[in-house]
Write a structure and sequence with these properties.
Bound molecules: ligand FO1
Shape: globular
Number of strands: 14
Radius of gyration: 19 Å
Order of helices and strands: EHEEEHHHHEEEHEHEHHEEEHHEHEH
Helix content: 25-40%
Strand content: 15-25%
Distance between the termini: 9 Å
Length: 323
C-alpha cells in the first residue's frame, strides 16, 4: 500500500452521490490524474435512437464543472427546446434530454456505430471537456439493469424516471453480465502497484455498485488487490441522502440503516465510513471485523466534498499502514 502523494486510487460510482465524492477526491488529490472512477453502466439505455449513459455523463459533467447543481444530472444552464418540439410532434418526453446534453448522446452514438468502444469514446470526451480524473465504464459490453417489480420486469430508466420508482421492487437482474468483460483499465488499476485504496462511493448498492460487481472478474480482482476497499454509507439516519435506496431496502425486507449497507458489502470491504448521525451503529459494524470511521458524510458544499474525500484518504492510509 502506498500512502504517499503518488498513490493511485480507484472509485466505484453511480451517478449523483458518487460524483460528489469523486469531485472531492479530484480537488484534494495532488494529481487527480491518479484517480480512476469506474462508472456503473447498468442505467444505460437506448432512447430516441441514442445511447444514453446517465452515470457516465453525471460523472463527466460533475468533474468537468458543467453539471446542473440542482438536479445533480444533466448540464448547467440547460434549455429544453428539443423536448418541447418533440412533445409537439407527439414524441416521448418522459425522459428529459436537454439541448446541450443532447450533444453527448448524439456524438457517443455516432462513434459507437463506427465501432469505437464506449471506454475509448468516454476517455476522449472527458479529455475534451477537461475532466481531470480518468472515468471508465465498468464494461464496454451492455449490462442493463432490469428491475423486477410487482408490476413485472422494468428496464431501469422505465422504473426510475418513467414510473418514478413507484412499483414495489422484488429484485434486480444484470442482463448480459455473464458474457460481459470488465474494462481493461479498471482491472489493470486494481492490480497495479501503488494502489492506495478502492473507494466504494456513497451510491445505491443495488442499482449502482452491484452492477459493477456483477461483471465477471471484478469481485476476484477486488479480493486480490492489496489496497484497502472502503465504502461510504449512502444511508444517513435511516434515510437515503438521495434517491430510492431506503425505499428499495424496505421493500426487500431490510430496515434501512448504515449497518445494513455494511452487511451488504460484507466480504468485499475492509473499511466503512458512516455518518455522525449513525455513530451508535459503529461498534456493531466494527465487531464484524471491518474498520470503521465516523464522519460527516452529507456533501452539500464543495468544502463538504473535499472534507469527506480527505477523511476517506486518511482512513485508507491508516488501514493500509496497519495491514
Ligand atoms: N432523471 C430524472 O429523474 N428525470 C429525467 O428526465 C432524467 C433525464 C436524464 C438525462 C440524462 C442523464 O444523464 C440523466 C438523466 N436523469 C434523469 C438521471 C438518471 O435517470 C438517474 O439519475 C440515474 O440513472 C440514476 O443514477
Amino acid at each position: 500500500m502506498t500512502s504517499s502523494a503518488d498513490a493511485r486510487y480507484v472509485a466505484l460510482s453511480g451517478g449523483v452521490g458518487g460524483a460528489k465524492l469523486a469531485l472531492g477526491l479530484c480537488d484534494v488529490l495532488a494529481d487527480p490524474g491518479r484517480l480512476i472512477v469506474v462508472a456503473n453502466t447498468g442505467d444505460d439505455f437506448e432512447h430516441l435512437g441514442l445511447k444514453v449513459c446517465p452515470d457516465l455523463d453525471t460523472l463527466t459533467y460533475t468533474l468537468a464543472g458543467l453539471a446542473n447543481e440542482e438536479t445533480g444530472w444533466g448540464r448547467a444552464g440547460e434549455s429544453g427546446a428539443f423536448m418541447e418540439a418533440l412533445g409537439a410532434l407527439g414524441g416521448e418526453t418522459w425522459f428529459f434530454l436537454g439541448d446541450k446534453d443532447l450533444a453527448i448522446h448524439v456524438e457517443r452514438t455516432r462513434r459507437l456505430r463506427t465501432g469505437e468502444s464506449l471506454s475509448a469514446i468516454t476517455s476522449d470526451l472527458c479529455a475534451r471537456l477537461g475532466v481531470p480524473a480518468r472515468i471508465v465504464p465498468m464494461s464496454d459490453d451492455p449490462v442493463p439493469t432490469i428491475v423486477e417489480t410487482e408490476d413485472g420486469p422494468l428496464a431501469f430508466q422505465h422504473y426510475f424516471v418513467r414510473e418514478r420508482c413507484r412499483p414495489r421492487v422484488l429484485g434486480f437482474r444484470h442482463e448480459g453480465a455473464a458474457q460481459a468483460r470488465p474494462c481493461a483499465a479498471f482491472i489493470d488499476a486494481l492490480g497495479a502497484p501503488g494502489l492506495g485504496a478502492v473507494i466504494v462511493c456513497p451510491s445505491n448498492p443495488y442499482i449502482s455498485i452491484d452492477p459493477i460487481l456483477a461483471v465477471p472478474g471484478v469481485q476476484g480482482a477486488l479480493a486480490a488487490c492489496r489496497a484497502p476497499v472502503i465504502a461510504v454509507s449512502p444511508i444517513v439516519g435511516g434515510k437515503a441522502v438521495k434517491g430510492p435506496t431506503a425505499k428499495m431496502m424496505a421493500e426487500r425486507g431490510i430496515a434501512p440503516s448504515a449497518a445494513a449497507i455494511a452487511r451488504h458489502y460484507a466480504g468485499l470491504i475492509d473499511g466503512f465510513v458512516l455518518d455522525e448521525a449513525d455513530r451508535p451503529q459503529a461498534s456493531a459494524i466494527a465487531a464484524t471485523g471491518v474498520a470503521v470511521e465516523v464522519a460527516p458524510t452529507v456533501m452539500t458544499s464543495r468544502a463538504d466534498k473535499q472534507a469527506l474525500a480527505r477523511t476517506v484518504l486518511a482512513f485508507a492510509g491508516r488501514i493500509g499502514a496497519a495491514g
